[in-house]
Design brief:
By secondary structure, the protein is α/β, with parallel strands linked by helices. The protein contains eight helices and ten strands. The chain is 34% helix and 19% strand. The strands form two sheets. Strands 7-6-5-4-3-2-1-8 form an eight-stranded parallel beta sheet, with helices on one face.
């Protein structure tokens, strides 16, 4: 099989678009501007109801920010993993670090034991760990299925050298999946220069509100949101263009 595409999906409808465009898998998240947090139960159920064949992974992340979690946050993550298992999703996505920036092996093992037999991806917590090569071996030893990484750079194109080295060192023991800034116009280059086979992209387009009456003077959230009357959603045509 050729190039495989995973879509970072921000809604059930984005999952529909991902499937229609030919993606094999989604990572379903809420709060994309914060780097993704655990999606709502209802969103997961609707994603399952509206799709038929695509694998659905959900991020297990109780908040934005760093990846050093309190006992209460860990308990919340365990509850969300239990929800994921009850809903019979394909996999879960999480990553945990120590205060020193290393992979929190004991916590990762605890979460992975709770998640079994679901597939486990370590997300971009990997990109802010202290030593990527030590982390690589730890995640392999833990039994993670894949690592999502930008190569510790703002985007995967700039991360090409490290991504290629990680794939070489992994030697098929774990999947290294480039993500961040992966698009139809650069995916072939990333593939050629790293040897990656799976890719993570959002492939989103703007969706304009159908509201006729609009009060644009009252924002509902952060000032970084350009308009309350524009949202982003995965676009099946942009997904297909990555294949």
């Amino acid at each position: 099989m050729g190039r495989k595409i995973e879509i970072c999906a921000n809604s059930a409808q984005s999952c529909v678009e991902a499937e229609a465009g030919g993606a094999i898998r989604v990572e379903l998240c809420a709060a994309i501007p914060e780097g993704g947090t655990t999606p709502a139960y209802g969103e997961i159920r609707m994603a399952q109801k509206l799709t038929s064949a695509i694998d659905i992974n959900i991020i297990i992340r109780p908040r934005g920010g760093d990846f050093l979690y309190t006992p209460a946050e860990v308990e919340s993550m365990l509850y969300d993993i239990d929800m994921a298992k009850r809903l019979n999703v394909h996999g879960v996505v999480f990553g945990c670090l120590t205060e020193q920036g290393d992979i929190d092996v004991s916590l990762m093992r605890r979460l992975m034991d709770a998640a079994g037999p679901l597939s486990v991806t370590c997300h971009r917590a990997f990109d802010v760990c202290r030593d990527p090569f030590v982390a690589l071996e730890q995640l392999i030893e833990l039994g993670c299925d894949r690592i999502l990484t930008s190569g510790r750079q703002p985007d995967a194109v700039r991360g090409i050298p490290l991504i290629g080295e990680l794939i070489r060192r992994a030697a098929g023991r774990i999947i290294i999946m480039p993500g961040a800034g992966v698009r139809a116009d650069n995916i072939a280059r990333i593939e050629a220069e790293t040897g990656a086979k799976e890719f993570h992209t959002s492939a989103r387009s703007i969706v304009y509100s159908r509201m006729e009456y609009r009060n644009e003077n009252v924002p509902m959230g952060s000032s970084i949101v350009a308009s309350e009357f524009e949202t982003l959603r995965t676009d099946r045509k942009k997904v297909a263009a990555c294949l």
